[in-house]
């Protein structure tokens, strides 16, 4: 009893002396690392906004940024799990290319023969074929790594060459186009966005989910008598979360259809053309929705399921995980299978966006994916990393690239900048971790 | 007193080698319910390797393991746990980057009816068990990497006793601990012994374990020098077994006993 009283006193004393900023972060349990990344993103945005003379922070550019990020962001979520277990996957770009080509041929050449061109089921069957292909390739990599003991670096370096070569063989190097009209919705664009009303609905659901999650967590902790966050911290978290969601949707809805498309739409639907032009909101793009859904599912897998727990345990100490009775090899196989399936989803987004499947699709994407995960806080030493961080990392990289394109910087120089940013980001992270110890 | 009882564990003529090194060579040990057997020997004598065979971490090259007199198939750590064998490894095999509750339940997580991890239930149980073991433990939300040696040790011990072990293996459990924590572990061992659990207690220092053990088994160069009841031998005699392989009169010699000329 005396013990508890003492410790309570201690806590109170500590709370009083603590710097308000530090107390804020401790109470809200906000990851300061993630916050650092948001800060970096803000700096990048504002710098580009100034140097482009106001071209960067426009609804149109921000909306495009989210669409351009989706494909790499989807793969980065899987790369986190791969890197957390001290593996690497260098083949994701080639697997994307191969899955894209397989899906291209399936929807443009094979399925229409049986179902007829434009059949509504084509996109779903195509996607399924892609997912199975990607998962099978990933599983193959995983089995070779886990059961034959070949290092993942080598297996996936081989995969990088093999699947790029295999992509060529599917069509003897020919580009496949166009894609199925429904399938193309996954690529975004004017058609592939859900519009203002649906976007607000998504925002509403997201806000409700945030509030519910906070309430549920608090109730659970109360039930078991665990320490809880101060109530103001809960309000801050809920408020910031909802504000971010609403802000994002507001931006997406502020980007209107281009005038010519809007006019065509107005003509087709017999709408009179108003004086100021017809303002139809894009809303959230379908690929962005897909990426967000993937992010949520992957976060769920990595934090709420046993599989995810094992992934992190293995990353921290493979021997301890094995001794605890975890079937570490199967976990490895499952991680790479998942990675393969995610490559297929990324391939669907990228072929749909391009409206074609090409030989070179996804080239260099492995590097951007790894860079996104690492910039997003995934440690190459294994054991740490978050899905949200990796997706944010992808967003940071894409922001850099788009900004440089807007500034008219040549692509060789773009690569130099991206390369340097990667090194600097990891160096900063090393410094941060050393200080946190 | 033990002669007419079936041993809880019987390891018979166990051998294993790594490359050319016979890490364990024709070693036999046994353990009865409610008994503490100290496994003694120099560093490199083969103690850890022998018990890792029992805990499923290594596969033996030869020999038999009997649990309650029945031959046991132990091919991996999961098999060993099915027989109620729990192990606290010398290397403190904890997953550094997950928290205490996750470590306690690693490989045997509690799940909700939806199949998701039941983290609150695990944390509740972790708080209960850790509260008994180490009342000062507060850092439930941090990865165990951030904990002190003693705290990590209590996590490893809590994990071993959480699942109603019948056979407990403790490989140098007090190596990283201060005097007070060492005494706590001693108390815990006595309590577990009263509950009828059989304990293999490994050490390279006899002073650590002599008072706790009912019997000692001494290893040297992978072989068993001999077994003795603690009450039949002095510390000096046991030291003679460890250092020279010299077996005192009241001890039972093993294959590694010094050959008397
Ligand atoms: N995994 C292994 N690979 C190779 N040699 C090993 C391995 N494990 C143990 N050994 C060797 O086996 C011998 C016994 O080691 P160990 O059982 O750890 O001794 P103890 O625990 O008694 O100090 C040592 O010579 C050690 O080098
Ligand atoms: Mg040892």
Secondary-structure-based class of chain A equals mainly alpha
**Number of domain units of chain B:** 2
Q: Tell me which ligands are bound.
A: adenosine-5'-diphosphate, magnesium ion
CATH architecture of the largest domain in chain B: 3-Layer(aba) Sandwich
Largest interchain contact: A-B, 26 and 34 residues
The first-to-last residue Cα distance of chain B is 34 Å
- Number of E-type strands of chain B: 11
The CATH topology assignment of the largest domain in chain B is Rossmann fold
Domains of chain A, number: 1
Short description:
The complex is a heterodimer of chains A (437) and B (261). Chain A is mainly α and 437 residues long.
How would you describe this structure to a colleague?
- The complex is a heterodimer of chains A (437) and B (261).
- By secondary structure, chain A is mainly alpha-helical.
- Chain A has a single domain, classed as ABC transporter involved in vitamin B12 uptake, BtuC (Orthogonal Bundle), CATH 1.10.3470.
- In chain A, 74% of the residues lie in helices and 0% in strands.
- Chain A has helices spanning 2-17, 20-28, 32-51, 59-84, 92-115, 122-147, 152-171, 195-223, 231-253, 259-268, 286-304, 306-316, 318-323, 328-354, 365-375, 387-406, 411-436.
- In chain A, helix 5 (92-115) packs parallel to helix 7 (152-171) and helix 11 packs across helix 12.
- Helices cover 30% and strands 25% of the residues of chain B.
- In chain B, the strands form 2 sheets. A 7-stranded mixed beta sheet of chain B has the order 6-7-8-3-9-10-11, with helices on both faces. In chain B, strands 2-1-4-5 form a 4-stranded antiparallel beta sheet, covered by helices on one side.
- The longest helix of chain B has 16 residues, at 179-194.
- Chain B is globular.
- The two termini of chain B are 34 Å apart.
- Adenosine-5'-diphosphate is lined by residues 18, 21, 23, 41, 43-49 of chain B.
- Chain B: Residues 9-246 form the ABC transporter domain.
- Chain B: InterPro entries: AAA+_ATPase (IPR003593), ABC_carbohydrate_import_ATPase (IPR050107), ABC_transporter-like_ATP-bd (IPR003439), P-loop_NTPase (IPR027417).
């Amino acid at each position: 009893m005396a013990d508890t009283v003492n410790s309570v006193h201690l806590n109170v004393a500590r709370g009083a002396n603590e710097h308000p900023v530090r107390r804020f972060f401790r109470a809200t349990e906000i990851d300061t690392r993630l916050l650092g990344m948001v800060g970096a993103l803000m700096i990048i945005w504002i710098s580009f906004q100034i140097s482009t003379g106001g071209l960067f922070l426009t609804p149109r550019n921000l909306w495009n940024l989210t669409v351009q990020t989706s494909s790499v962001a989807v793969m980065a979520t899987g790369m986190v799990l791969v890197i957390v277990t001290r593996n690497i996957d260098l083949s994701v770009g080639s697997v994307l290319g191969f899955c894209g080509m397989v899906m291209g041929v399936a929807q443009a050449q094979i399925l229409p023969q049986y179902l007829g061109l434009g059949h509504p089921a084509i996109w779903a069957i195509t996607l399924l074929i892609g997912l199975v292909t990607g998962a099978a390739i990933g599983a193959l990599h995983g089995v070779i790594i886990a059961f034959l003991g070949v290092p993942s670096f080598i297996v996936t370096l081989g995969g990088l060459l093999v699947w790029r070569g295999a992509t060529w063989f599917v069509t003897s190097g020919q580009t496949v186009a166009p894609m199925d009209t429904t399938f193309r919705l996954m690529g975004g664009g004017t058609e592939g966005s859900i519009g203002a009303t649906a976007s607000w609905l998504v925002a509403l659901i997201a806000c409700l989910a945030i509030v519910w999650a906070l309430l549920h967590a608090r109730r659970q902790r109360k039930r078991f008598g665990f320490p809880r966050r101060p109530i103001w911290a809960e309000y801050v978290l809920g408020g910031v979360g909802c504000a971010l969601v609403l802000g994002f949707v507001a931006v997406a809805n502020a980007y209107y259809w281009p005038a010519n498309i809007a006019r065509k739409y107005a003509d087709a639907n017999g709408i009179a053309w108003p004086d100021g032009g017809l303002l139809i909101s894009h809303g959230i793009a379908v690929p962005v929705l897909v990426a967000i859904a993937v992010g949520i599912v992957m976060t769920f897998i990595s934090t709420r399921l046993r599989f995810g727990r094992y992934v992190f345990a293995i990353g921290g100490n493979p021997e301890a995980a094995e001794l605890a009775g975890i079937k570490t090899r199967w976990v490895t196989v499952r991680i790479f299978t998942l990675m393969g399936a995610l490559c297929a989803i990324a391939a669907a987004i990228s072929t749909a966006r391009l409206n074609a499947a090409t030989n070179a699709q996804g080239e260099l994407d492995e590097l951007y994916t790894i860079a996104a995960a690492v910039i997003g806080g995934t440690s190459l030493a294994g054991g740490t990393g978050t899905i949200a961080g990796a997706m944010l990392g992808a967003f940071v990289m894409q922001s850099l690239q788009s900004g440089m394109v807007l500034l008219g910087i040549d692509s060789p120089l773009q690569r130099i900048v991206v390369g340097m940013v990667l090194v600097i980001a990891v160096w900063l992270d090393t410094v941060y971790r050393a200080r946190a110890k | 007193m033990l002669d007419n009882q079936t041993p809880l564990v019987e390891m018979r003529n166990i051998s294993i080698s790594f490359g050319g090194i016979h890490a364990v060579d024709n070693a036999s040990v046994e353990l009865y319910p409610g008994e503490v057997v100290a496994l003694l020997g120099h560093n490199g004598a083969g103690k850890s390797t022998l018990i890792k065979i029992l805990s499923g971490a290594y596969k033996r090259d030869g020999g038999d393991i009997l649990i309650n007199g029945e031959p046991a198939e132990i091919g991996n750590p999961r098999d060993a746990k099915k027989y109620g064998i729990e192990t606290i490894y010398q290397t403190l095999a904890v997953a550094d980057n997950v928290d205490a509750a996750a470590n306690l339940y690693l490989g045997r997580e509690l799940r909700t009816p939806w199949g998701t991890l039941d983290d609150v239930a695990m944390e509740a149980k972790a708080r209960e068990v850790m509260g008994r073991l180490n009342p000062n433990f507060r850092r439930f939300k941090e990865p165990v990497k951030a904990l002190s040696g003693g705290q990590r040790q209590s996590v490893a011990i809590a994990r071993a006793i959480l699942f109603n072990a019948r056979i407990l293996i403790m490989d140098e459990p007090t190596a990283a601990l201060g005097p007070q924590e060492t005494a706590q572990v001693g108390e815990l061992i006595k309590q577990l012994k009263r509950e009828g659990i059989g304990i293999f207690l490994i050490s390279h220092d006899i002073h650590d374990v002599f008072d706790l053990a009912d019997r000692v088994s001494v290893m040297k160069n992978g072989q068993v020098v001999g077994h003795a009841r603690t009450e039949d031998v002095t510390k000096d005699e046991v030291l003679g077994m460890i250092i020279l392989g010299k077996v005192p009169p009241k001890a039972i010699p093993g294959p590694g006993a010094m050959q008397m000329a």
